[in-house]
Design a protein that fits this description.
Shape of chain A: flat
Largest sheet of chain B: 6 strands, mixed
Number of helices of chain B: 10
Strand order of the largest sheet of chain A: 2-1-3
Structural class of chain B: alpha/beta
Radius of gyration of chain A: 29 Å
Strand content of chain A: 5-15%
Largest sheet of chain A: 3 strands, antiparallel
Number of strands of chain A: 6
Oligomer: heterodimer
Distance between the termini of chain B: 35 Å
Helix content of chain A: 55-70%
Strand order of the largest sheet of chain B: 6-7-8-3-9-10
Number of strands of chain B: 10
């Protein structure tokens, strides 16, 4: 048995190991806290929102919640404490049936019916905003990555995009109000009195009198909100396309635009698509930008339910076609309800009680599911397309 | 016209396919090519050799104006004539120039499309739409690139699934589909294994019956194997240009000899 030797690797100062483990646990706690917070939020919303959208019997989903417009909820209480929830049209009948056992009636605005109106409105807003933002954003990204030369101008553009991303969303709302609702140009026969500038063009007048609060105004405003996301992500996707493709294409005699169209954009498309879906999620969730530009707290009609003058019986097929086009275009010049604004209304504009809370959490849950589904779809798309285009 | 062609001892009689006359080339203030005179003989293989950074790739890229893509890169003096025309002239259309002066790059880089679409690309950008003509041209290009027999049954599968040697031959097929008269190759075999390299070299021999090939290579054995003429560049200057057999057996210039012996400093 040899004599124990002195440890040549002994720590110089004591407590080093403990400090190490304290730091590790602090960092770990921080990470866990985030996971815990997200889980808590999702569970809370799921728990509170489920009663609004789920049913205990087949088909387990409250289909009326998705197929009806929001309406006023009537809660009728009988003397024996029974509560009956009903819409405005059946309230009288219920009261009659209860007869003298009727005790009280409470009405809660917006909390009855479903959320079809807000869903449709959000879908339309997203459609317009993503369309506009993709057109502008992808053009800008292509220019930045393929044409622009590094320099002062590029720095200015980048700074502008960065600033755009940092602007609070309510500022976008006010910008949209000023730019689109009140001053955007439109063709009219007689300019309105609040028109900023009217340019007569002979057959019509181009009047800067705004588009009013409508899907178009809201969609354009939202487009500017998601523009920085789309530009930045698209530019990254374009830059990720190997330069060899561009060189080869140029060496084969392709012009710059041919190269972009055939050898850059198609390979960057998956990433651009993914970023646009994230843009959708963002646009679907914004409240402030649409508050002044498109959304109404309540509307009893869907955007296409509009009274148009009935055509005479012998109207030509052209007249019918024209009216259909008019009806379709009319959708975009209507103001709508939107999901985030509906939630805002339910949470702040009406007295809080269990019924309004249920409707509110139901809408929140639907909105959360919508965003989750879109994100999942974008991830799936990315994985799929990345497999297809590997270089 | 002043044309100094060092030791152009009667190997070629036809007019040169590419003629470089007193060329100076700069990246910003940095002169990378200086007073290059070179007459590349038609329908022959010419190798450009030299140490790294000697300007051989830049010289090659001057011949189809690929350097235009870099900001600050420009010809400051002299001319590059292809088929007798100075390609720096403002009336030269890059599309037409590059259609006739094709280029193959170092890394095999087929597009992530099908084999067929890769080869057809050059024709499509020049506006060819007729399906029958496209099919014929693609087949012919693949045959000339010695790929047809291997790939004819899977023309519509992904080009990226091919081996790197096949990919490089596909890139050659993609380039020759427009029937260029000059083919520029920038170290086409440096990313390939010896067998694949050999096949590319065989291919170059076959192609040289139709077109002029100019190849940049690091590999001196390759230059000796494939080329008819060799140009040796060093520090942006053309040191020596002669038939390959001469340059490898009795180089006239000291630096060439030193480089070929491997004692280059």
């Amino acid at each position: 048995m040899s004599t124990p030797i002195e440890n040549p690797f002994a720590a110089k100062e004591r407590g080093g190991r403990r400090r190490e483990s304290i730091v590790r646990w602090m960092l770990r706690a921080g990470s866990f806290l985030i996971v815990f917070a997200v889980t808590a939020v999702v569970l809370h919303i799921g728990y509170c929102g489920a009663p609004a959208i789920l049913r205990s019997e087949w088909p387990f989903v409250n289909t009326r919640y998705f197929s009806e417009l929001p309406s006023t909820l009537h809660v009728i209480e009988s003397t024996n404490g029974m509560r009956i929830e009903t819409g405005a049209e059946d309230a009288g009948a219920v009261k009659q049936r209860l007869g003298h056992s009727f005790s009280s009636e409470t009405t809660i605005s917006y909390a009855g019916g479903g959320i079809l109106g807000p869903l449709v409105g959000t879908a339309l807003l997203v459609l317009v905003s993503v369309g506009v933002a993709m057109l502008l954003g992808v053009s800008c990204a292509v220019y930045l990555s393929e044409y622009a030369k590094e320099g002062r101008f590029m720095e200015a553009v980048r700074l502008a995009i960065l600033n755009l991303a940092g602007v609070p969303s309510v500022v976008y709302g006010l910008f949209g109000l000023g730019a689109f609702v009140l001053t955007a140009p439109r063709f009219v026969t007689v300019p309105s009195e609040h028109s900023v500038l009217a340019i007569p063009l002979g057959f019509t007048t181009l009047s800067f009198e705004g588009w009013d609060t409508c899907v178009l105004s809201g969609g354009f405003t939202l487009a500017f909100v998601i523009l920085p996301v789309i530009i930045t992500a698209s530019e990254q996707c374009l830059r990720a396309v190997p330069n060899g493709f561009r060189e080869t294409s140029a060496a084969l005699g392709a012009t710059r635009w041919q190269t972009i169209r055939r050898c850059v954009l198609p390979f960057a498309a998956p990433g651009i698509l993914t970023s646009s879906i994230l843009g959708i999620a963002r646009a679907a969730g914004e409240t402030a930008p649409i508050m002044f530009t498109a959304a109404l707290a309540f509307k009893d009609k869907l955007p296409w339910q509009k009274e148009l003058t009935a055509l005479p019986a012998d109207a030509s097929i052209f007249a019918h076609w024209e009216q259909s086009v008019q009806r379709f275009l009319g959708i975009f010049t209507e103001s709508v309800q939107a999901l985030p604004y509906h939630i805002y209304t339910l949470a702040t504009k009406i007295p809080q009680n269990e019924y309004s809370e249920r409707a509110q959490y139901g809408a929140v849950l639907v909105s959360l599911i919508l965003v989750a589904v879109l994100s999942a779809f974008s991830i799936w798309l990315r994985i799929r397309l990345r497999k297809k285009y590997q270089w | 016209m002043v044309t100094t062609t060092p030791s152009s001892n009667g190997v070629h009689h036809t007019s040169p396919a590419v003629q470089v006359i007193g060329l100076d080339f700069c990246y910003d203030a940095n002169r990378v090519l200086q007073d290059i005179h070179l007459a590349v003989p038609s329908q022959r293989i010419t190798a450009l050799i030299g140490p790294s950074g000697c300007g051989k790739s830049t010289l090659l890229r001057c011949m189809n104006r690929m350097n235009d893509r870099f900001t600050g890169a420009r010809v400051t003096r002299g001319e590059v004539r292809v088929k007798g025309k100075n390609i720096q002239d403002p009336d030269v259309d890059l599309t037409q120039l590059r259609k006739q002066v094709g280029m193959v790059f170092q890394k095999p880089n087929p597009f992530p499309k099908s084999i067929y679409e890769n080869v057809a690309y050059g024709l499509r950008i020049h506006g060819e739409k007729n399906k029958g003509d496209l099919d014929d041209a693609v087949e012919q290009a693949l045959r000339r690139a010695a790929l047809w027999d291997e790939l004819k049954d899977r023309l519509h599968t992904a080009a990226l699934a091919l081996s790197s040697g096949q990919q490089q031959r596909l890139c050659i097929a993609r380039t020759i589909v427009t029937q260029p008269e000059v083919l520029l190759m920038d170290e086409p075999c440096s990313a390939l294994d010896p067998i694949a390299t050999l096949r590319i070299e065989e291919l170059m021999h076959q192609l040289s019956s139709h077109c002029t090939i100019i190849i940049v290579t690091h590999n001196m054995q390759q230059a000796a194997r494939v080329s008819d003429h060799t140009a040796f560049l060093r520090r942006g200057r053309l040191i020596e240009f002669a038939p390959t057999s001469d340059i490898f057996t009795r180089p006239q210039e000291k630096p060439t000899e030193a480089y070929l012996r491997g004692t280059f400093v």
